Amino acid sequence: MVPNFMICYLVSCFDCSALVQLTMADNGSVNDDTTNQNSEIIKTESAPIDELSREIQETLSVSQRHKFWETQPVGQFKDLRDTSLPEGPIEPPTPLSEVKQEPYNLPNLYEWVTCDMNSEETCLEVYNLLSNNYVEDDENMFRFNYSKEFLQWALHPPGYFKTWHIGVRVKSSKKLVAFITGIPAKIRVQNEIITMAEVNFLCVHKKLRSKRLAPVMIKEVTRRVHLENIWQAAYTAGVVLPTPITSCQYWHRSLNPKKLIDVGFSRLGPRMTMSRTMKLYKLPDSPLTPGFRKMELRDVPSVTRLLKTYLLEFVVAPDFDEMDVEHWIVPKEGVVDSFVVESQETHEVTDFCSFYSLPSSILGHPNHSNLKAAYSYYNVATKTPLIQLMNDALIVAKQMDFDVFNALDVMHNEGFLKELKFGPGDGKLHYYLYNYRIKSMLRSSELGLVLL
């Protein structure tokens, strides 16, 4: 049985067999009436969104409906059949002078703080809060363990706002007990490029999850985003909220099957032995594509051109410039790894692949304490077949001692998943836009956006 993962007070479910992150920008659902819902409502990607609406309303009791999200400018289930509603912003921007200037009220024992993630002391506090309270499976076997370096990378993109890194402390002890962040991002929807917020790392200490902090934290980060004259957001959740623009499947590929089976992450297939399983997932010792090498800073212009052209194929995708590519794609040890294919004749960069590192703590195991997972990020194949490019990505991930390689079925990823022996996870990752309506639900292959 595959356990569900919960994000703190929120209900954001995970597929343990892939140990995949189904986080936001808004990092999960904010359902302030329940802390345990079934995430596996959608069984097929092709289910029409009106069927999705009916299923969730039948599944959830009246007391479990999304009272918080029903007050927000997001697509509502009741509007699904209303073709007269325009595509685009749901609510117009408010004059900045009318945006609430003071923070929302917290319970008396707590206070807002702005977290300086450049401070080693503060970054360590945030790391400790997340590593002890963030995402854990129902059976207490695994918990996400974002590194401090990953957090600094994720929260310091070009143009970031320090005021969007928000903490909640106990007034008396100054202990950090909750956290939420936002970063700005340029996202193209159809032909319109919009500056949006991506909200992430919403975490409330385990002992405070009855305090109803999550909704007020969402409102507070939204207020701070509005103060910067930004009115849209993109986010994901592992549960169905009003209303997904698409639903994606996570797939996983074993790199160290013996360890994965030993720690209970996966199990032997029927009629399979350990030796047969290890042979099934064995990879070559080194990449097979001529000119395949680690990306360097000098490759940023070439990779930017490849990525910008590729992402134009999708309905919703980021609009990256060279500064973005330098930040998000250039390799950073222990955080993100990227590789290019350089033509041996022309020395032109023709292809690239990338993945980021999100390990998990293994709880209570006598021999293993860390599960090392790679997550497919952005990949562009123009001259090298995509299957060959991603097989080389698996090879270098294995060389770097990753235990499992995860990928969503977004963009053109479906073209390599089955061929390269990825297995589907049980959960879904649902994508949402805040204060922006898309008339029809997208196929996952029409999405060009990967959120950390």
Automatic annotation (TrEMBL):
GO terms for molecular function: glycylpeptide N-tetradecanoyltransferase activity. Residues 1-25 form the signal peptide. The keyword Ribosomal protein does not apply. Its EC number is 2.3.1.97. InterPro entries: Acyl_CoA_acyltransferase (IPR016181), NMT (IPR000903), NMT_C (IPR022677), NMT_CS (IPR022678), NMT_N (IPR022676). Residues 262-441 form the Glycylpeptide N-tetradecanoyltransferase C-terminal domain. The keyword Acyltransferase applies. Keywords: Acyltransferase, Signal, Transferase. Residues 89-248 form the Glycylpeptide N-tetradecanoyltransferase N-terminal domain. GO terms for cellular component: cytosol. It catalyses: N-terminal glycyl-[protein] + tetradecanoyl-CoA = N-tetradecanoylglycyl-[protein] + CoA + H(+). It is an enzyme of class 2 (transferase). It comes from the Eukaryota. Pfam families: NMT, NMT_C. GO terms for biological process: protein localization to membrane. Belongs to the NMT family. Adds a myristoyl group to the N-terminal glycine residue of certain cellular proteins. PANTHER family: GLYCYLPEPTIDE N-TETRADECANOYLTRANSFERASE, N-MYRISTOYL TRANSFERASE. This is Glycylpeptide N-tetradecanoyltransferase. It comes from Lactuca sativa.
